[in-house]
Design a protein that fits this description.
Elements: H1 2-5, E1 13-17, H2 24-39, E2 43-48, E3 65-67, H3 73-81, E4 85-89, E5 110-115, E6 125-128, H4 135-145, H5 154-167, H6 178-188, H7 194-201, H8 207-218, E7 221-223, E8 228-233, H9 235-240, H10 253-256, E9 263-268, E10 276-282, H11 288-295, E11 299-300, E12 304-309, H12 313-323, H13 328-333
Parallel strand pairs: 1-2, 1-4, 2-3, 4-5, 5-6, 8-9
Antiparallel strand pairs: 7-8, 9-10, 10-12, 11-12
Helix pairs in contact: 2-4, 2-5, 4-5, 5-6
């Protein structure tokens, strides 16, 4: 039913929604869908619930993104309420778009999920597979099932390739499969500029970002007994170093780079108020998705997840340290 209704014969009003603070896969998947659905002559809007890192502003089509704010609130609401279909891209729980949830009380749009995270809420149409490494793979499958692979051009391929690269850690995470590489090959055939993409995705350090990283590394704590490392950034650090969105990206990976460490945690106090944002990364069998869901109201993937706490930074760290001993066996056996 869905395929026949959006095959381009009847123009539809469609809204695409990535999650809060969209990453490379969320943006890449959403932008690829934007270009594709517009090729089918649909009226398509891409609305981001929050801003996104300058790191991705080079992506094709970012000038089409409508970012939610108090200034754009009425326009965003109008577009969602009047849409025929809403695609939820790279997330499966409305808590990930909290600024926009209320608008769906007034919307009769059919809700379509395209996502690779586990434990999805129910939507009208589900393209959900937690075994794949990136939502971009599901967007490729979606276009394929529409028999429209010929409509993938260089712009669409670039966006999907960025989604693949960022959510697979440049094709090195355990979730990478032969399908991942097969799709990457098909996208390369569309003439994408791999050198340019790699150059844009290589970490670029400005002075303030390096100073924040230095601050975080000075605070880095290692708990050898539990093969765990953790660090934090507080609001004072960010005010002093003129923080911009995206400046803390990558800090969490340094903990995992320490020999024998399998669990890295980053506590982020963006403002002098709750909540505290927490990122989790792991190696091997230790499941940070389940850990985050159980203790921090979050979730994600087996080896990469996030959560929040309505506590102060010091209370959040103390809460975490009290939990860790319960996972001694899990952490010691993780390989």
């Amino acid at each position: 039913m869905l395929f026949s209704s959006i095959d381009g014969k009847n123009k539809k009003k469609i809204v695409l929604l990535p999650h809060n603070n969209p990453d490379g896969d969320a943006l890449g998947s959403s932008l690829a869908l934007l270009f594709y659905l517009r090729k089918l002559r649909h009226d398509v809007d891409l609305i981001s619930p929050t801003g996104y890192s300058e790191f991705f502003q080079w992506l094709p089509g970012t000038d089409n993104i409508l970012v939610f704010s108090e200034k754009t609130k009425s326009l965003v609401k109008k577009k969602i309420v009047n849409s025929d279909y809403v695609f939820f891209v790279d997330f499966n729980n409305l808590s990930r778009i909290k600024n926009l949830r209320e608008f769906f009380l007034y919307s009769k749009a059919k809700k379509i999920l395209i996502d690779h995270h586990p434990f999805p809420f129910r939507f009208d149409f589900m393209f959900s597979d937690s075994t794949v490494s990136a939502t971009s793979i599901l967007v490729f499958r979606f276009i394929s099932e529409m028999n429209h692979l010929d409509k993938i051009d260089k712009e669409i391929a670039t966006c999907l390739y960025v989604g693949l690269m960022t959510d697979t850690g440049f094709f090195r995470f355990p979730s990478v499969t032969s399908e991942t590489h097969f799709i990457a090959g098909k996208l390369i055939e569309k003439g994408i500029d791999i050198d340019n993409i790699y150059d844009h995705l290589q970490e670029k350090y400005n002075e303030n970002k390096l100073k924040l990283l230095s601050k975080a590394l000075k605070k880095l704590k290692v708990i050898k007994k539990y093969r765990t490392a953790y660090t934090s950034i507080n609001a004072s650090d960010m005010n002093f170093y003129s923080y911009k969105q995206g400046d803390t990206e990558g800090i969490i990976t340094y903990g995992l780079g320490i020999k024998d460490i399998v669990f890295s945690v980053f506590f982020f106090e963006e403002r002098k108020k709750y909540p505290i944002k927490i990122s989790f990364r792991s190696k091997g069998s230790f499941d940070v998705n389940l850990f985050s869901r159980k203790h921090f109201g979050g979730g994600g993937h087996k080896n990469a997840a996030g959560g929040i706490l309505e506590k102060s930074l010091s209370e959040s760290i103390e809460y975490f340290l009290n939990i860790i001993p319960n996972y001694h066996i899990n952490l010691m056996s993780s390989i």
